[in-house]
Write a structure and sequence with these properties.
The protein is an alpha/beta fold. It is built from eleven helices and 14 strands. The longest helix is centred in the C-terminal third of the chain and has 21 residues, at 333-353.
Length: 393
């Protein structure tokens, strides 16, 4: 075609364009599902910082599909996407290609961004789009997108609404270039408008080449539930929750280190021999060894008890014991002191006779100084005439 003929054709097309084809499509009825509660509750977290939508306005998008132009379907999908994106911090952009009245011109334009995303700004870009009619330079938009996104930081989602009736080789090369330039940062989500098998094949190869993203069908995401699922998959990630802590182990049973039947948390006399008889706080209780008034003789009824104690002593050859003698308050204190010593020695000698080493025993008299009962009664004085045993170490 000569330049003159080409120019005349484009002028005629431009006149037709301004005669009524330039207006953006009208949004179809749509009530978006709110995804933000999933973020508020911690179920999901944002997974991208930037996104760009590429809208195909080439000549093939003027073809009818399910009763309307494919371009109108693509435009409405972009509109519904904008309505569904939750309120999260994003950098957004919108680019179209083929939106020119001249059918032989390769054309792409940035309609919105790259800027801090607002639904109003994105919608304004959609409303400014021209009618479809040019050739199909998806590769041109992809190359331009590489420049558009150059200043961004963080993960990028690139969403393409198209019938993918494109030159396969140069399109895939542009995808490869994007992948290399934004290595590990960009995922591509091609959305097929229509049902052309060649377009579907290219759509799938775009995903394979990009190595990140997925292919979607425009019919399946047109309703609000499908669009919500698509937006959630592209923009959000399931929150990683810390594993629940294991149930607390039941508290360990308190130890009884010395084996006397009283646990360590209550034992006031740790290290008591296992053969000893202890009280409620773990201290060795010796049944009273009482004496007649002014006597140091061991009564026969106490020998069985003393034999048991001697056996216990011999089970613990490293322990040293103190034999403590006591008296009542009758008589002079000096006399009572000597009497208490005789009583202590009498018991010590009995233990020695039962095989307890002498160097493990110490006899001490305490006189009348440490009564355990009142010296005002016969019963009390009888209790005070006694011998006790204590562990030295």
């Amino acid at each position: 075609m000569s330049k003159k003929l080409f120019g005349a054709f484009c002028i005629a097309a431009l006149m037709a364009f301004f005669a009524g084809c330039a207006a953006a499509p009208t949004p179809s009825d749509f009530e978006a599902l709110d995804l933000y509660p999933k973020i508020e509750t911690g179920e999901c977290t944002p997974k991208v910082d930037n996104f760009m939508v590429i809208l195909d306005g080439s000549n093939s998008m003027t073809d009818a599909y399910k009763g309307q132009k494919k371009f109108n379907l693509a435009w409405n999908l972009a509109y519904r996407l904008n309505e569904t994106i939750p309120e999260i911090p994003l950098v957004g952009a919108l680019r179209a290609f083929g939106t020119t009245p001249c059918p032989f011109r390769e054309y792409t334009e940035l309609l919105y961004g790259v800027a801090a995303y607002t639904p109003e700004g994105f919608a304004g870009g959609l409303k400014s789009v021209q009618a479809p009619g040019g050739v199909s330079p998806l590769y041109l938009s992809l190359n331009a997108a590489a420049e558009d996104l150059n200043a961004t930081q963080g993960p990028i989602a690139l969403i393409i609404f198209s019938d993918f009736m494109q030159n396969e080789e140069i399109t895939l090369q542009a995808v490869e270039n994007l992948k290399n330039q934004y290595s590990g940062r960009i995922c591509i989500y091609p959305v097929l408008i229509g049902n052309n098998s060649n377009g579907k094949n290219l759509q799938e190869r775009i995903v394979q080449t990009a190595g990140c993203g997925f292919a979607a069908n425009g019919d399946e995401i047109y309703a609000n539930t499908g669009m919500a699922g698509f937006v959630e998959s592209v923009f959000l990630a399931t929150a990683v929750r810390a594993p629940a802590p294991p149930p607390a182990a039941p508290p360990a049973a308190p130890l009884d280190s010395d084996g006397d039947g009283v646990t360590d948390d209550r034992d006031q006399c740790p290290g008591t021999p296992r053969c000893a008889t202890v009280n409620e706080v773990g201290c060795w209780v010796i049944k009273g060894i009482n004496f007649d008034f002014d006597k140091a003789d061991i009564k026969p009824e106490y020998t069985a008890n003393l034999n048991q104690i001697a056996d216990c002593f011999n089970q613990y050859p490293d322990i040293i014991f103190e034999i403590q003698g006591h008296t009542d308050s009758k008589g002079k204190a000096a006399y009572n002191q000597k009497l208490s010593e005789r009583r202590a020695n009498a018991v010590m000698e009995y233990f020695i006779s039962q095989g307890v080493a002498r160097d493990r025993l110490k006899a001490v008299g305490y006189g009348e100084s440490d009564p355990v009962a009142s010296n005002d009664t016969d019963e009390g004085r009888a209790q005070n005439r006694r011998v006790q045993i204590d562990i030295i170490h």
